[in-house]
Design goal:
The chain has helices at about 30-40, 60-70, 85-95, 110-125, 140-145, 165-170, 195-210, 270-280, 290-300, 305-310, 315-325, 355-365, 395-405; strands spanning about 45, 105-110, 130-135, 150-155, 175-185, 210-215, 240-245, 260-265, 330-335, 340-345, 370, 370-375, 385-390. The chain is an alpha/beta fold and about 400 residues long. The termini are far apart.
Length: about 400
């Protein structure tokens, strides 16, 4: 009670469901970076893969498709998305040899992020388990937790070039396991899984009746001799949800358009798909204008190929990272075969007391470079950090000079 007799309001506490949720990619370090920018400092933000911030443009044909269809974008659309966008996803799946997908099996969302949440919410009961790679993209772990499930991390250790430890993965399956998450090409490591690895993972999922959720938002973003192998054509005897979108390959993060296409044993998953349809209906629909870019994106010229080949901007920026690490006595790198990230290790022999959060904070405060600590990605070690390779090569070269000001 205040002295004037008015009751004091009780403190408003956050939901307990958030206590185990982490997303440090946009956490305290990023908030500190924003504070410094307001103070006038120029920050090199390498914590997020956001192509538009580094001068990448969405293909003009996609922008024109959105603009020309704005008059048809003012009303709600079907809860699963506009038909041309869903049919374009179907055609992509058919080109990959997946023939049992129709537009009814495709859901368009406000980015893959929304669809991950909806797909898990429709599937999980309390304490159901989901197998997630470690290192992981933290949204998968957070979405499992927020929907009452238990995230069980299977190791993809650096000594195995960040490929999954398949024996350990098999040993983690219990009678509570409902789904297996595969992120390929991988965020944060850049690992691209071999066909043999993927076939073994699919066989495990089919043997135990697990739903496969394949996060393929970086499909096609591979370098040198790395080969992207889509999961859906490998899956015959369980349900497979393939997630992708416009954000990365098509440099259209702000469009907020992602999709999930279900294949495999769709006929045995009618109840689940009806549940997902219900959840999609509750949010009415996803952003309509951006959906008009899907058909043009998937059916048009794939400009990404120019960026990932030698001489292309992504390729040369990745090379600058590889060269920067190679020139350092303090750092190590498993060369990323795909995606737009590098997961860089600090040499424990040279830096026995290295701590990823302390290094990231000092790098930000003294050198004005923002990175993501490796332990943010649900690993049990703290001598790694993730950077995006989106800046131009000369900027990355400067970043490594700044890093060595801190390391040396």
């Amino acid at each position: 009670m205040r002295p004037d007799g008015i009751s004091m309001s009780a403190q408003i506490e956050t939901s307990k469901s958030l206590h185990e949720v982490r997303y440090e990619i946009r956490g305290q370090l990023a908030q500190r970076a924003h504070e410094m920018e307001r103070q006038g400092f120029e920050i090199i933000s390498l914590n997020i893969g956001n192509p538009g911030l580094f001068g990448f443009r969405t293909p003009e044909t996609m922008r024109m498709a959105m603009i020309e269809n704005l008059p048809a974008s003012e009303a709600y659309c079907h809860e699963k998305g506009i038909f041309p966008a869903r049919e374009a996803v179907v055609m992509q799946q058919q080109e990959r040899g997946v023939m049992n997908v129709t537009a009814e099996h495709v859901f368009i969302g406000n980015g893959v992020s929304e669809l991950i949440d909806l797909a898990l919410r429709a599937l999980l009961n309390t304490d159901d388990e989901v197998l997630i790679p470690s290192p992981d993209y933290p949204l998968w772990t957070a979405a499992v937790t927020l929907n009452g499930g238990k995230a069980v991390h299977y190791p993809c250790p650096p000594e195995n070039d960040f490929q999954p430890d398949l024996d350990t993965l098999a040993g983690l399956i219990t009678d509570r396991t409902r789904a297996l998450v595969i992120v390929n090409p991988n965020n944060p490591t850049g690992a691209v899984y071999t066909r043999e690895t993927l076939e073994t993972m699919v066989a495990l999922a089919e043997q135990h009746g697990l739903v496969i959720f394949s996060d393929e938002i970086y499909d096609g973003m591979v370098y040198d001799d790395a080969e992207f192998v889509p999961i859906a054509p490998l899956v015959k005897n369980t349900l497979c949800g393939t997630f992708s979108g416009l954000s990365k390959v098509y440099r259209a993060c702000g469009f907020r358009v992602g999709w999930v296409a279900f294949s495999g044993t769709n006929e045995l998953a009618e109840d689940y798909l009806h549940g997902l349809d219900l959840l999609a209906s509750l949010r009415l629909c996803s952003n309509v204008p951006g959906q008009w870019g899907v058909q043009t994106a998937l059916g048009g010229y794939q400009s990404l190929k120019e960026l990932v080949r030698p001489g292309g901007r992504l390729y040369e920026s990745r090379k600058a990272v590889i060269d920067g690490v190679a020139a350092s006595e303090y750092l190590s790198l498993v060369t990323p075969g795909g995606s737009m990230y590098a997961f860089i290790g600090a040499n424990r022999d040279k830096l026995p007391d290295f701590d990823d959060h302390e290094f990231a904070l000092e790098l930000l405060e003294s050198q004005h470079v923002l990175i993501a600590p490796g332990s943010s990605f649900n690993v049990d070690y703290n001598n790694y950090f993730r950077i995006t390779i989106l800046p131009e090569a000369q900027v990355i070269e400067d970043v490594f000079r700044r890093m060595h000001e801190v390391l040396g």
